[in-house]
Structure formats: structure tokens, C-alpha cells
């Protein structure tokens, strides 16, 4: 693993897991997504991981028109790296999932590195949903596979590499690291790899510290010094896990996509609050936070001026 002198903070602004009824602070309008993204960057995030939401319903969408409502605002309001999802919303086709990244040609795009059962149905038990799509969207995941076959991954890598887009490789289990190594061995991707290890999604690797150590040691064995490790964990595991990852020399991801709370029973008022909290923790540990340009240099991105935003 590359041990950088400074820690990259990624902030995942809205995602496609949490629904609008779960928190009044989850940004689902274009205006709120833009404002919270800029606020997160001002708080210390150097990478902004972005999804879009449908106007009026807050449902996840990859509609280019919805992205156009906030991406230029974010680019004008901050120099943070824009990272567009290709995981997108649950149940979307690959054409839908890749549409925004292919159109806007961002510096970074997320890339899920394997198929797995993705179950967030437990959240449907809360009740009190504002929109009729929310509960069925959550409940259907008892019979849902997040599909990322080798053919699908190869297509996505081929498409986006043509745009000189780099990747946030999302690895939800140990096997996903081996899938990444397969594409590296084929020469389809070039180091340094930005490996996002994800813990706590039902169907993926569990949120135990031993699993973090196992993911790191496996990545070390497969990639040596050719990768940067980043850590995210779902829900209440977020801050303890990312702190542990940073202590081990990794980078961190926070944000309302992954966790709606700042602490037990305390909803985060916005994404900036999550970034501020982890930045404070890092600085208390005598770890320095990377600026967007320092993150660009570490990850070898093409720069904001060379995107289609």
C-alpha cells in the first residue's frame, strides 16, 4: 500500500441507498446536492462522490439532465475532484449506470468490482414513507443481486478509460480484490489503484476490525505499493472504521450516502458536518488532510479542466 503523507477525504453526498423519508437532511434536490457538495469540500473533502436524484420524488436516477442541474454548480463552486457513480441506483441497466460518467467524463468514476447480494430491506421496517416508491425499492432487495459481471466491468473500464477517467474501485468483499487484480494483470487498468474497501452492507464483508486487516493484507499481497487504500463503512460503523483505516495508513470516505448520523441518535445536519468530524479526528491523530490538487497528484487524475462538466 502506498502510504501518503496526507489523507484523502472522500465525501459521498447522497447515494442511492437512503430514501428521502429517512432524514430531512439527505440532499435530494439539485440545489441541495450542489450546496452540500460545496459545503463538504469547504470542510475538507477533496473528492466528491456523486449520484443524482429525480426531481420531485428524490428517487435515484442516472438521467443526464438531472446531473446537469448540479454538476456545473459544483465545478464552479469548488476545486474538489468530481467522482460520478457507475453503481447508480439499484436495478438499473449498464447503459443507465454508465450514462452520466460517459457523458461528463469526470476525473474519477466509481467502479464496483464484483456481483453480490445487496440487501437493504431492513430499512423498510421503519414505515412512515413520504413517497410510494421508497418501501418497495427497499423491500425488493431481499431478492436482488447487484450485478457486476466480468463482461460488465470490462465494458465500463473500456468506456471510461477512453476518457482518461480514473477509478474508485469499490470492493465489498475479498473476492472483489482478486477481480481487480485480474483486470490489472490484463493491463486494462494502470496503477496507482484507488481501492475503496466497503464494510457493513448485508451481502458483503462484515464490519469487524479483523476483516479490515484481512482486506488490507490481501490488497498488499496483490498490489504491493501500486495502490492507495480507502475505507468506508455503513451506518454506525462509519467513524470507528474509517479512523482505524487512517491509522493503518489509508484514506477515508464519509457522507450521507453511507451514514445519516453523526453519533448515536444524532442525525447529521449535512455532509459538511461528517467531513468536519473526520477531519478533526485525523488532525487529533497528527494526520494531515490532502487538498484536491494533492489528491490529483496522488491518484494521477487528468484535472478538472479536462472533463466534460
From TrEMBL:
A Pfam family that the UniProt record links to this protein: BKACE
Transmembrane regions: none
Keyword Metal-binding in annotation: yes
UniProt cross-references to InterPro entries, sorted A to Z: Aldolase_TIM (IPR013785), BKACE (IPR008567)
Single Gene Ontology MF annotation: metal ion binding
Keyword rRNA-binding part of the UniProt annotation: no
Keywords: Metal-binding, Transferase, Zinc
Required co-factors: Zn(2+)
Protein name as it appears in the record: 3-keto-5-aminohexanoate cleavage protein
Organism: Seohaeicola zhoushanensis
